[in-house]
Known about the structure:
Elements: E1 3-5, E2 11-16, H1 21-32, E3 37-41, H2 47-57, E4 62-65, E5 72-75, E6 88-89, H3 94-105, E7 110-114, H4 125-133, E8 137-140, H5 141-144, E9 146-152, E10 160-162, H6 168-178, E11 185-188, H7 196-203, E12 208-211, E13 214-217, E14 227-228, H8 233-245, E15 249-257, H9 264-271, E16 278-286, E17 289-297, E18 305-306, H10 318-327, E19 331-334, H11 347-357, E20 361-365, E21 368-372, E22 381-383, H12 388-400, E23 405-408, H13 420-428
Parallel strand pairs: 2-15, 3-14, 6-7, 10-11, 18-19, 22-23
Antiparallel strand pairs: 1-23, 3-5, 4-5, 7-9, 8-9, 11-13, 12-13, 15-17, 16-17, 19-21, 20-21
Amino acid sequence: MEETVRSPERLAGALAVPGDKSVSHRSLILNAMANGSATVTGISDGADVRSTAACLRAMGVSIEPLDGPGNFLVSGLGPNLQEPADMLDAGNSGTSMRLLSGLLAGQDFLSVLTGDGSLRTRPMGRIVQPLQQMGASIMGRSGDTLAPLAIRGGSLRSIEYEMPVASAQVKSCLMLAGLSAAGPTVLHQPALSRDHTERMMTAMGARVETDELALTLHPAELQAVDVAVPGDISSAAFWMVAGLIHPNARVTITGVGLNPSRAGIIDALQMMGAGDSLLLENERVEGGEPVADVVATSANLKGIELGGEIIPIMIDELPVLAVAACFAEGETIIRDAAELRVKESDRIATTVSELTRLGGKLEPRDDGMVIHGVGSLAGADVESHGDHRLAMSMAVAGLAASGDTVIHSAEDASVSYPAFWEHLASLTGEQ
Ligand code: S3P
């Protein structure tokens, strides 16, 4: 499917983005392995979260729709998850594969996890190695580094582990395995990453201690907990940038989750000079997470240098930040972001190549990129490279570029944001 985007006279409207993808996965996985039933409301309708739900259903978990979009009753099986009769398919979702591997390592049965072409090229050694240290029998292709992964779960040892990457997926995988380990699991993180697992496990009765970059999880049986999933800041980021770079815009995104371990994009856009053009309204706490409405209006942005601790807390927003940087004055330098190379696509290579097609001036670096602000882009044909966030970032570029921007494989957006194209049409007044 192709989508053609052109810059409207005015970009305006209010919308609610899908439920946070990371919180959605965790609300299903943790409640599935808890004692009791829980209602989860507003979970993401994207393909990634559907993959997690399908895998859990294959283990005997009941996830029944309730009234209202994204509302489900999850009936936890506690320690009684069942051996799946077939391979578990995580689709495009790294979160599904890595988190479920941690859960499966502690289950006394055999499971095989696979995924689509992109997921089968992504690094799994980062979870296989520490799970093997815990005593799990887990193997994969290419010397246990690539999916499919075969796991014969069982009893696990406790480990103290120095994490080589600041990854919430690795951290959460090991925490899920650690729930059934013989003693505490101690993790040393190189930098803080999103903390939804820590928050939700704590709410479900587990003891999680954090001391700066160290985290200790004590083995626990979880008790089911209702979860109200906030709007996904990673999806909201597309409309924030669109509102800032379009010359005549006012876009309101309601109910956006602003957990500090996710909100780096707001800080980065403020560093670029967004000022009063990026406002938080109705700040509140919902379901234990800070939430606000975000209002983005046209702004003159300037280039910045980004690196260090902010990178893991805005890792998924870097492609769309690169779009903002093309429209900014001066140079933007992104460092310490080598993780971008192992996402749904190599996001350093794909962001640079597609924005270059639109007339951007970008240089790839091993661990990031340099973006020379050119102040404008010109429509052209661009590819999604099988990457939802790239497809949506290019659409945002198209909203402020001259001429037509044609996004190929535009359907990839549905991995995290099925209503993306409809929402775009509502903001441009085409609907
Ligand atoms: C996620 C963690 C991040 C992020 C991904 C979702 C999560 O990945 O890129 O979209 O839900 O834990 P890493 O942990 O690999 O950095």
